[in-house]
Amino acid sequence: MTALNEIQKAGLVISLADGFIKVSNPSKLTNELKTIIQDNKAEIIAQLLRQNITRQIEDSVSTTAIRVYCYRTTEKPSAELVAIMPGTELVEAREKLKNKYGDRLLDVYHSPYCFTGIPANTTKH
Question: Which of 114, 115, 119, 125 is nearest to 71 (CA)?
Fold first, then answer.
C-alpha cells in the first residue's frame, strides 16, 4: 500500500495547493499520519500530481471529444444527414437540432461511422 493510499484509508482528504500538501480535514491528522506524510512527502506529491494531470486530461477529452450524430428531417426522410458537435451528448444534440429544425426533425442518433463509446446498433432512437 502506498503512503497516499494509507493516508486516504485513514480518512484524510489531501490535495496539492501551490506545490504543498494540503489536508482538508486536519482533525483526523494523528502524529502517526503526520510522520507518514513527512517521510513520504516526495512520493505523495508525485502521486497527487499524476492524479491531477490524469483528471485534467480526462476532463479535456470529455469536453472536446468529437461527436458525430446522424439525423433525418421531413424534407429528406430517407437521407442520413450528419452533425459534428464536439463535447455534445446525444440529448443536447437532439435539443440543438430540434431548435434548428423544429417539427421537421424526425430522428437523431449516434453515427455508426465514428467512435462514440456506444455501439452504433444500440443507439438509434
Answer: 125
pLDDT in tens, the chain (125 residues): 788 888 888 888 998 888 788 988 888 889 999 999 999 999 998 888 888 888 877 777 666 677 888 899 999 888 888 888 888 889 999 999 999 999 999 999 887 654 444 444 444 44
Q: How many helices (H) and strands (E) does the chain have?
A: 4, 5
Residue ranges in the chain assigned as alpha helix (H): 3-9, 31-39, 41-64, 90-101
Distance CA 82, CA 97 (A): 11
Which of 3, 67, 78 lies closest to 34, judged by CA?
A: 3
H or E element at residue 17: strand 14-17
**pTM for this prediction:** 0.50
